[in-house]
Amino acid sequence: MAKEGHALVVVGAGIVGLATAYSLTRNRARRVVVVEAEGAVARHQTGHNSGVIHSGLYYRPGSLKAELCRKGREKLLSFCQAHAIPFELCGKLVVATRQEQIPALHELARRGEANGLCLLRWLEAQEIVNYEPAARGVAALWVADTGIVHFPQVATALAGEVERAGGELRLGFRVRSLVPTAQGWRVVGTGGEIQARGVVVCAGLYADRLARQVGVGSGIRIVPFRGEYWELAAHRRHLVRNLIYPVPDPRFPFLGVHFTRRIDGRVEAGPNAVLAFAREGYRFSQVSPRDLWETLTFGGFWRLLSRYWRTGMAEMWRSLWKAAFCRALRQLIPEIRQEDLAGRGSGVRAQALDSQGNLLDDFAFAEVPRGLFVLNAPSPAATAALAIGEVIGKKALELVA
Ligand SMILES: Cc1cc2nc3c(=O)[nH]c(=O)nc-3n(C[C@H](O)[C@H](O)[C@H](O)COP(=O)(O)OP(=O)(O)OC[C@H]3O[C@@H](n4cnc5c(N)ncnc54)[C@H](O)[C@@H]3O)c2cc1C
User: Fold this and answer.
1) Each residue of 364-384: pLDDT tens digit?
2) Residue nearest to atom 27 of ligand 1 (CA)
3) What is d(CA 152, CA 307) in angstroms, rounded to the nearest whole number?
4) Structure pTM?
5) Last residue of some domain: 111, 144, 177?
6) Which of 46, 146, 205 for a ligand 1 pocket mutation test, highest count of atoms within 8 Å of Cβ?
7) Which atom of ligand 1 sits closest to the CA of residue 229?
8) Nearest Cα to 150, choosing from 71, 86, 218, 84?
9) Ligand 1 pocket test: which of 41, 45, 70 has the largest number of ligand atoms within 8 Å of its C-beta?
10) pLDDT (mean) for 143-151
11) Are 294 and 232 contained in the same domain?
C-alpha cells in the first residue's frame, strides 16, 4: 500500500471536522487531509439535525457551549453570507405551558442576558399569539437571535473551501487504527494508510472508540440517543410561523419536542430522545450487537438509568405511540391532531456519558502528543462549528509545531 509524506489528518467530515480543516488551511497548515468513512460529507449528525442556528440562550454562562455558540453563530452567519447559503434569523418562542415552569423560564432569560443575547422579550400569555397564533402558554420568551439554515449546505461549502486551499478530502476512508510513530501517527483504515505528523479526531458517534484506542477518554462512553420527528402535513404548516420550543428540563441536555420551520419551508415536530440500539440506529429496528454491548456493559449507563428510567420509558412510549407524541406536541399547539403528522425522520445524537452516569453537558476535548480528540460535541455544535474548528485547529498546529 502506498505510503505518503506527513500530513495533518482530520478524521470525520461532519461539520466539526470540516470546520477544523477549514481553519487549518486558512492558517496555512501544510498538507491537510480529511478522511471520512462515508461516501459523502455530513452523512450523520450534521445531515440529520434540526437546522437551527442557536442563539446561546440555554448554556451555563462561562461554559464552552456558551462562548463558542455565540462566537460560532457570528462566524456562521458571515460564512453563509460570503457563500450565498440561505439562512433566516426568524427568531423563536420558548413557551411555558404550566405555572411551575415560570421560574425556569426566568432562569433562561437570565442566562440569555448573561450570554450576551440582547434581543430577548418576555411575553405574557395573551401576547403569545402575536408571535405564534396557534401556540398557547402561560408566558413565553421571544428570542430574536435564533435562526435556521441547512447545515449540510454549510458542510459542503466548507469542504469546497478546504479543497480550494489545497487540502484533500478522502471519502470512503474509515479509520481502523491510529498507531503512534516517531514522527506522529500511522492512520490506518479502509482507504489505505497515511503517515501523519498530527491527528484531529472529530468522529462524532465514534469519538470515544477512537479515543480509547490511544488511551484517552476511557471514563467516557458515547451513548447514541435517537431524536425522532414528524413532519407536519403541508396544509397544516401555517400552524407554525417559525420555531416554538417548550421550557427544557434542566436535568437533560435535550431541549424537549418542539416545532421547527426548516429553511425549505417544511415544518418538523420533535425530536424526542430515545436510546438507540446502534450508533447509526436511525430506526427502532436497527440494532448493532457491538454498540449495544458497549452501552449495556458501561456502568455509567446503569447509573443514568437508575435515576431517569421513568423519563426514559416515557420517551420510549412516545416514540412507539403516535398518540402520545401528539399529546406532548399539543401542550404547545392545542389544535395539532395525529392526522397532521405525516412523514417521519430521525437523527442520532452522540452524547457522552461519564462513568458516574452524568451526561456531559459541555463540549469536551482531550489532547495527546500530536493529537487532539473531540470527545463531546452535541448541540449546539453545528452552530458553534466554525468557532470550535478555530480553537482546535490552532491547538493542533501548536501540538505539531
Ligand atoms: C436530531 C439532532 C438535532 C440537532 N439539532 C441541532 C440544531 O438544530 N442546531 C445545532 O447547532 N446542532 C444541532 N444538533 C447537533 C449537531 O448536529 C452536532 O453537534 C454536529 O453536527 C456534530 O458534528 P460532528 O462533525 O462532530 O459530527 P458528525 O456530523 O456526526 O460527523 C462525524 C463524522 O465522522 C465520521 N467518522 C466516524 N468515525 C469515523 C472513522 N473511524 N473514520 C472516518 N470517519 C469517521 C462519520 O462518518 C461522520 O461523518 C443536532 C443533532 C441531532 C442528532
Assistant:
1) 999 999 999 999 999 999 999
2) 204
3) 36
4) 0.96
5) 144
6) 46
7) 1
8) 86
9) 45
10) 97
11) yes
